[in-house]
Batch of 4 targets.
Target 1
Amino acid sequence: MNTTKHILIAGCGDLGLRTAQLLLQQGHVVYGLRRNPPGPPTPEPKAASSITWIQADLCQTGIHTPLPEKISTIIYCPTPAQRTEAAYRAIFIQGLNNLLGALNTTWLERLVFISSSAVYGEHHGNWVNENTPLLPLGVNGRVLQEAEQQLHALPYETVVLRLSGLYGPEKQQLLERIRAGQTRVPRHETYYANRIHLEDAAAAIVHCLTLPQPAPCYLVNDNTPLPIDELYDWLASAMQVPCPPEGTPPAGIGNKRLSNALLLESGFRLRWPDTRQGYTALLNEQRLNNQQV
C-alpha cells in the first residue's frame, strides 16, 4: 500500500494491537473498536497511543457511537464473550451486520475477516488446504463457516484468514497449563497441533491488505504442524517440568495438518516458521524477564 488508508480494526485485542503497530509504522490511519478501549492508566504497547479508539459494542443492534468516515479497510477480529453458539452468532454474524449497517461504506474497498481452522472437520492427520471441504465438529466452527459464507456474499472485496492456534508473549496459556500439570496428550495415536506466532498472524493480515488480487481465503499456519505429544513434551522439557500424562485428544477440532502453501505462494514470509523456534524465543524472553525482576 503506497497511499495512506483509513483502517478500522473491529475487536482490537491482542491480535488487533499487533496489526495496528505494523499499519501505523506504514503511515496509515488506524481506528480500534472495542467494548472497553484502554484508558490512560492502562499500560499498552507503544502503538496504542497512536490508535484512535472507538468505544462500541458490536453485539448491540444499531451502533450509536459515531463511526469515522472514509474507512477503506475493515479488519474484523473480535473475540466472543463466551464459547457458546449464541455468543459466536452475536459477534461473528450479527456483529458484522451491525457494524456494516452503522458505517458509511462508500469508501470501503476490502474486508478481512479473521476466522479459524475450526471450520475443518476430522481428517485423521492428513493435510488440509483452502479447498478442503468444510465439516466443522464444534459449534464455533459451524458458526464461523456460516459467517464466511455470508461474508463472500457482500458487495465488497473480502478475504478470510483461517488462523491456527495463536501463541506469543500475549498468549501463554498453554505454557502455564503445562507448568501447572493441567494438560493431557494422546500417545496411542499421532494427533497434530497447528500453531502460528501472534507476530506472524498480524504480519499475515497486513500482507493480505497489500495484495492487489488476494485469494478469497488463506490458511495462516507455520511450517511445522507437530504431534501434540511431541510438542508438549518438548515444551515441558524446555521448562524443566514433568511431561504431560496420557489423555484424550482435544475435543471438537479434528486431527489435521494445515498447509500454508497458498499464503507462502502469495509472497508472505514467516518470521517464526518452526513452532519450536518461536517457543524457544518466547521462553528465553520469559527467563530474561524473570532475571530482571
Note: Residues 85-102 form the longest helix (18 residues).
Target 2
Amino acid sequence: MAVIQLVLLALIGLGAGSLAAALGTGGGIIFVPVLAVLFAFDQHVAQGTSLAVILPTAIVGTIGHARAGRVRWPVAIPLAIAGVVGGVIGARIALTLDDSLLRRLFAVFLIVMAARMAWRTVALVRMRGSSD
C-alpha cells in the first residue's frame, strides 16, 4: 500500500473517529461510504472493514462519554447484548445479499435516517421557538 494511501486512510480515520465520538454515529455512516466511493471497496468489504474499525473507535468514545457521566449503563448493557445477537444475524443476512443490492439498501438507510433526523430537528426548533 502506497504511503499516500496510508496517510489518506489515517486522515479519514481521524476525521471519522472524531465525528463518530462527537456525534455518536459509530462511524459507519462515514467509513462505509468513504471506503466504497473513494477507495472503490465493494460494499461487503467496506462494511466489514468499517465494523472492524468502529470497535476501537467506539471503545475510546464510550470511555470519554462515560467519564463525563453521559452513558446510561442500565440501558447500554441490554442494548449491547441484543446488538451482539443482531450483529450475528445482520452479518449473515448481508453476506447473502448481492453487493449492488446491499449498497442500495445502505443508501436508502442513510437517506431515511437523515430525513428523520432533519424532520425531528425542525419539529424541535419549532417547538422551542413557540415556547419563547
Note: The first helix runs from residue 3 to 23.
Target 3
Amino acid sequence: MNEDIRQRFLEFRDRLYGRHDLSAVDEMVHPDFTSDSPLIRPGIAGYKEFARMLQTALPDLQALRHDVVVDGDRLMAMAQWQGTHRGPLLGAAPTGAVLCFATADLYRLRDGLLAEHRDVVDRLDASIALGLVRPAVGEGA
C-alpha cells in the first residue's frame, strides 16, 4: 500500500510539473486540501493556481532528485529542483537564470489523497540568482 501511494505521488509530480498536466491535481489532491505555505491557497483550485504559477515561472522545472517515504497517513517528499526563470516569480521579473532550490514537503493523507501540507523551501541560491537577496561578502558579491 505505501509503495503504491509513493509511486502515485511520483507520477503526480511528474505529470504536474514535468508534463504540465493539471488534471493530476484532481486525481491526487483532496477537495479539503490545506497548506501552511503562503503560496498555496486551500482546495484543489488553490493547488492548481500554485502549479500554474510554477509552470509559468519555471516551464522546464524538473526534480533532479526525489526521496519519498510513506508511513501510515504521512508522506514525506524531499526534492532538489531546477528550472529556467521564464515568468514572474516571488515578485521578480523573468531573468532567464537557471534556478536551483530544495523542498521538504510533509503531507497528511486522507482517503489516499493529499489532504494537509507543510513545507520547508531552501530558496537562498534561487533568491540570489533572482536578485532578491545579495550574496554574503566573499561569495561573489
Note: The domain at 2-130 is CATH 3.10.450.50 (Nuclear Transport Factor 2; Chain: A,).
Target 4
Amino acid sequence: MEKTKKMLPYLIIIILDFYLLPLFIKDTGTAMMMMLVVIPLICFVCSGVYGIKNSFNLYYALLVAILFVPSIFIFYNSTAWVYVLGYGIIALVGNAIGMMFYKQPKRAS
C-alpha cells in the first residue's frame, strides 16, 4: 500500500497524459505527433523521475500499460492496442534508467 501511495502522483500525470492530450488531436499529423512523440516522452520522463525518487518497480510499468487501455475505446481504434505494450515498455525503461540515479534514503540510527 505504501508503494502504491508513492506511485499516485506519477500515475495521475500519466492519466492526464493519456486522457487530456488526445483532446488536442485534430488530424492525422497531430495524432502521429502525439502518439509517437509527446505522450511517450511524458510517459518516459515521468517514469524516470519515479525511478529516481523510488527506485525500480515492475508494478508501476504494468499500471501504466493498464491505464492506457480505456483510452483506446475513448479516443482511438483497435490498431492502438500495440501502444499498450509500447507505453508499458517505455515506462519500464524510464523507470529502470531512473533507478540508476536512485539514492537510498539514510536510515536514522
Note: The CA atoms of residues 61 and 91 lie 5 Å apart.
